[in-house]
Design brief:
Keywords: Lipid-binding, Membrane, Transmembrane, Transmembrane helix. The protein has 11 helices and 13 strands. It is of the alpha/beta class.
């Protein structure tokens, strides 16, 4: 049997988090010099509370002890593992996991371990995780699940925005002058992910224009594959997510949608009010448009 490891850069709802085939691996959030395991020792609302005060918590990658605990526990239960990691271009988490997996394989060659780079995170990783958990529910073999994840990673589009440029400036992606000018002119960034990194796709005036571009890019990316599950993720602003869902429902009447909250460890870099849409340009061979476990 196989289980799926997801780290806390992947957006999860309760049905996903409680899924018996899921192993949750937290990254760390640092507030006032103290480190907390994301989603375990600190919840999302506490992190949002700190952010609303204008503070920017720090983040750090997974710790090896937590990963080893998951490996040891599942080895003893005769479970193999697939780990869908945060983008290797944005964090050292994937590299750490690769080293740990290599070491573990040498000592326990009978255990099947597969590490897959999500080349992103957030709702993009959620698309792959949802399908993987659904396949594991149905008893699909390890290699089929891993192949489906890889296909989804290759087909996933990221279109998202943030409430103001200040968060990009704090994260070092733009300079302070650009941030100040942009905010004064009501400039909003349309962001995407390329080669595993967040990049600015366009700078547009006003939220409404950005939202329209997000819808258009998503519709164009999906093409003829409208009958699919689309993920909408938000940072502490469910009203924005529902607004986008209504717009998408009109543009994509055959699609179904799931709204998720961006994980704390990514939310601190995107800022309150960030929202994104994640969809597929093609559908893998093994695909369920609305897995039953999401309705539980």
């Amino acid at each position: 049997m196989t289980k799926l490891i997801i780290d806390s850069t992947c957006d999860l709802n309760e049905a996903m988090r409680k899924h018996p085939k899921l192993e949750y691996l937290p990254l760390n959030i640092i507030i006032d010099g103290k480190s907390y395991k994301d989603g375990v020792e600190i919840d999302l609302e506490r992190v949002y509370e700190v952010m609303r005060k204008g503070e920017m918590p720090q983040t750090s990658q997974i710790d090896i002890a937590s990963l080893l605990e998951i490996l040891d526990r599942n080895r003893k239960a005769n479970e193999d593992l697939i780990y869908l990691s945060f983008s290797s271009a944005m964090s050292g988490t994937h590299a750490v996991a690769h080293q740990v997996f290599e070491m573990y394989r040498e000592e326990f060659p009978e255990m099947k371990l597969t590490l897959i780079d999500s080349q992103g995170g957030c709702g993009g990783a959620s698309l792959a995780a949802i399908q993987a958990l659904n396949l594991l529910d149905k008893g699909h073999p390890h290699d089929e699940v891993a192949q489906t994840i890889r296909e989804i990673v290759a087909y996933t589009s990221y279109s998202f925005t943030i409430a103001n440029l200040d968060w990009l400036q704090k994260g070092g992606r733009i300079n302070k002058v650009t941030s100040l000018i942009g905010d004064n002119l009501n400039i909003k960034p349309l962001l995407t992910v390329k080669a595993g990194k967040i990049v600015i796709d366009q700078l547009l005036r006003g939220h409404k224009r950005v939202y329209k571009h997000i819808i258009k890019k998503t519709v164009d990316h999906i093409g003829p594959y409208q009958d699919q599950l689309v993920v909408i993720s938000h940072v502490g602003d469910p009203e924005i997510a529902q607004t986008l869902k209504a717009m998408l429902s009109e543009a994509l009447p055959e699609a179904s949608f799931v709204v998720l909250r961006v994980s704390a460890v990514l939310g601190v870099h995107l800022g309150i009010g960030g929202v994104g849409v994640f969809a597929l340009s093609q559908l893998p061979e093994r695909y369920d448009r609305r897995p039953a476990f999401l309705e539980k």
